[in-house]
Amino acid sequence: MHTIAVLNPGHFHAALTLRLAHPGLSDDIYVYSEGGQDLQRFLEIVESYNSRAEGPTQWKVHIYEGADCLDRMIQDRKGDIAVLAGKNNTKMQNINALSQAGFSILADKPWVTDYDAMPHLKATLAPERRPAVDIMTERYEITTVIQKKLMERGEVFGQPLVMADGSPTVYKFSVHHLYKLVNGLPLVRPPWYFDVGVQGEGIIDVSTHLVDMTHWMLFPGQAISYEDDLELIKARRWPTKVPLDIFQKITGAKSFPDAIAGQVQDDVLHYFCNGELVYRVKGVPVHIKLIWDLIEPEGAKDLHQSVIKGTLSDLRIRQLAEKGFMTELMLRPKTGRERIGQEVEACLAEWQTDYPGLSLSEEGDEFLINIPAPLRTTHEEHFCKVRDAYLENLDNDSFPPETFANILSRYTLLAEAREMALASPYEMLK
């Protein structure tokens, strides 16, 4: 039986790891926090799980509040698994301290906000330490799962297509929104979320998922070394402009904090949450781009596009407004369309036990992989899927051997991308 201890739950992702009960987890949850609104929001979400009509949880939350919460958590040692999701500037240092104290770690991304965090990352991932894993929810998105499975079929995808002109084999593009409605109410973000000195630059945040998915799909089961396998070509960052009235709606704060005053002009915050990087992994060109728009359009949602080019077929993930932004997986054969269609049909038939209802239809020069509603799960549901896989691997000592090497190389790449982007001139107020 494992027991979770949560340090400073400043992001709602901390609570999402408790969305469902688990037979291997104690109902006692120990929370160590500096207090304030972040803690209250965490408790409200956990209470909503305990009080819901269908499948309520029975978490018993024990709280310690104080500026010395990290030291007290280590001293008390009430749990064996530490969960962290909150302020990112101290996250890696805290992870290292908890890891050194003997905790297993399950922590939200990003772990690294600047290169100063790298020594803590390397120490945490040392072989003698307990397992430390970041929460990579996007691996459980059904379109990503099927995209990966089709890539593994040489008769369908072929091999990653590397063009002589260096154009990207993989292009991943993600759009999120700072101001959005959840259950009809604005999603509340803490004011520190808009301080890149605390939250981190956008180029090291959502891009963690995009880089992870890329390496996981291109080279399954393989360890990736930053020194040997990755080549960073270019990186850039730019801001989203956040007017004071929108900042107030998002945070509930009356004014911009003093800590970000240098990024404000005429009551508009220049928030560096956007980023782009181009690199090669084992010789395969990759282009990653992430954008935070200011306000979520009515009826829209966060968007993810993905194109992965193969020698036989390209695989594409799209979201169309006319289809309610539903995530869809497309396959475009380059040659032998009829044969490849038959091969895909055979794959989908083979996978019916695990993924019942998958089917194929034609749409122009592409095939659409039809994914039935029961196979589609939400971003919120994915957190417990990550948690459950972590518990299984922890109990069975069965973490894939490449896991920790790939965490290290991924964050090294993004830390280097941030350094490169900062070195590129950007006139913030123009």
Structure, briefly:
The protein has helices spanning 13-16, 37-51, 69-76, 91-100, 118-124, 142-151, 207-218, 226-229, 244-251, 337-350, 379-396, 403-423; strands at 2-7, 25-33, 60-65, 81-84, 104-107, 132-134, 170-179, 181-182, 185-186, 230-243, 264-265, 268-281, 284-295, 303-309, 313-319, 327-333, 359-363, 366-370.
Characterization of the model:
This protein is of the alpha/beta class and 430 residues long. The chain contains twelve helices and 18 strands. It has helices at 13-16, 37-51, 69-76, 91-100, 118-124, 142-151, 207-218, 226-229, 244-251, 337-350, 379-396, 403-423, and strands spanning 2-7, 25-33, 60-65, 81-84, 104-107, 132-134, 170-179, 181-182, 185-186, 230-243, 264-265, 268-281, 284-295, 303-309, 313-319, 327-333, 359-363, 366-370. Strands 7, 10, 11, 12, 13, 14, 15, 16, 17 and 18 form a ten-stranded mixed β-sheet that branches. It has a six-stranded parallel β-sheet with strand order 3-2-1-4-5-6. Strands 8-9 form a two-stranded antiparallel sheet. Strand 12 and strand 13 form a beta hairpin. The radius of gyration is 22 Å and the shape is globular. The mean pLDDT is 94.
Largest pleated sheet? 10 strands, mixed
Question: From the helix content, strand content and strand pairing, which structural class follows?
Answer: alpha/beta
- CA-CA gap between termini: 56 Å
In N-to-C order, the SSE pattern is: EHEHEHEHEHEHEEEHHEHEEEEEEHEEHH
- Total DSSP helices: 12
Share of helix, binned:
25-40%
Strand content: 25-35%
The average pLDDT value, as a whole number, equals 94
**Any low-confidence stretches, pLDDT <50, length ≥5?**
none
